Fold this sequence. Notes:
Layout: H1 12-15, H2 21-82, E1 84-88, E2 96-100, H3 101-114, E3 116-118, E4 133-134, H4 135-178, H5 181-187, H6 189-201
Antiparallel strand pairs: 1-2, 3-4
Amino acid sequence: MAKFNITVDLDWMDDEEGYSIDDELKERVIKGIEDALLKRATDDAVKAVDDKIREKVGEAENSIQEAVDKFISTVCEEKINKIMIPVKKNSWSGEVKYKPLSEYVGERFNYYITEKKFDKDGNVARWSSESVYSAADLLTSDYLKKELDTKVETMISNARKEVEESLIKSFEQKLKENLSKDIIEKMNIPDVLRRFSEMSLE
């Protein structure tokens, strides 16, 4: 293995025009700090500008979307209002009158809802003589039937409980009147009556 000793003479910089190593180091450190500060300031400025641009683009996008929605809504509304549907004045006449689309759709919907075309089971009737219910009748009767069934069921169960409780109380009262208190306590009549009512419910 070979060893080399290298000696560098830096004193020559001190001799030339009053320029020293300290000045050179100081200048490079200052330049490095300036470059770092400049880069940081530039990055912050670019980020702030990007954020502002993003914010302005978002605002512009929202206003553009609102303008487009309004335009489409207005155009569609105008076009739909201009659409006229030809309808015969009556089945015997060849005369035709024109109705706006919205009015025509409303009439057809009303006709569909009120026309009796369902049988008593809620199926579409095959014959007009079997038609009993309209769509509105069917919907409301089903709803009312469900509501009434649950309410009647609740009322019946509540009434049953009240009747059973009043029967037990009146039976206890009659027994208390007829039997002495000691015998009732020994026989434990209230529990026997409750068990009796539970067995009758099963």
